[in-house]
Amino acid sequence: MGTTGDNGTCLTPAECAQRGGIASGPCAIGYGACCVFIASCGMTVRENGTYFVNRGYPSHYDGTSSCQITLVKSNPDTAQYRLEFEEFSIMGPEPQNHICNNDQFIVSGGNPVPVICGSNMGNHMYIDAGPGVTNPITLSIVTSGPSFPRHWKIKLIQIPYSTVGKANNGCLQYFTGVSGQIRSFNYDPTTGFQLSNQDYSICIRTEMNFCSIQYTQCADAVNERLQSFTLSGDTSNAVQAMVGSTGTGNFCQADYLIVPMASNVGRPATGPTLSVDRICGGTLSADVSMMPTTIRSSVKPFRLAFHTDSVEAPTDAGNRGFCLDYVQQPCTNSLL
Length: 336
Description:
Radius of gyration: 21 Å
Distance between the termini: 47 Å
Mean pLDDT: 91
Structural class: mainly beta
């Protein structure tokens, strides 16, 4: 780690300069330099662990432009790019339908990736690098509209086919570990809005000797009423959970989270079915309820799917998206 706190590669000072890096402190008992690679608009990135930053970083950027970089594999064995949003604050969506029509983060050349905007620090994406060595990926941040103190710092990690860190196919997000937290893009309990036109999968690696997974709404210390799962409805009032894809009411067709064969933990469902897939509304529950409930899924591999359409108003208003804490359950646990 360099003196700035950024991760780098231990190289000789001469090699670091030759490869376009910045020496940030010593390594190898003083014989080498911790070489940090920084890229900004118009550059081509080959070095693993490069940081993509805004113009003038660490100062904020307030201007109208398209800042674009191109990712090229450093090794033919590279299967994916992991984008880690260490800093990410650009203008959020418009407030009526939550569409990113001012600032946009766009990924081109890999697997389908939804356009995102707003605040996404701490979140991440996995991008398919494609076969061969000549399959460039383009990252673009388009800024327009009103004045805004934009800043971003995205760490770009190349993941080989042969590593256990490779995400499953089709996963835009990939989490490891027995427990963790999953947030939709631009989730914030105070200022965030659920983004429209989202359609992606979230995967959690099944750890050894674990057979099911539980999801619980994150704590919400900001709002008087828990709003860490608000996907549809008008959240100026409490909105019950809605489940399933068909019915005469209280079902999910536009904005929803798919949790395969979800069931309530510690509170039996009140409806005729004991498990559901689609969940929406303003409460996390496997049945139509106003009571937030931990839910469980035993379908492996562990995977969620998130979908939103392009319309919020007038039926939906103020939805934040979701923040879920997950905990994998040992195979010896009862599924009651």
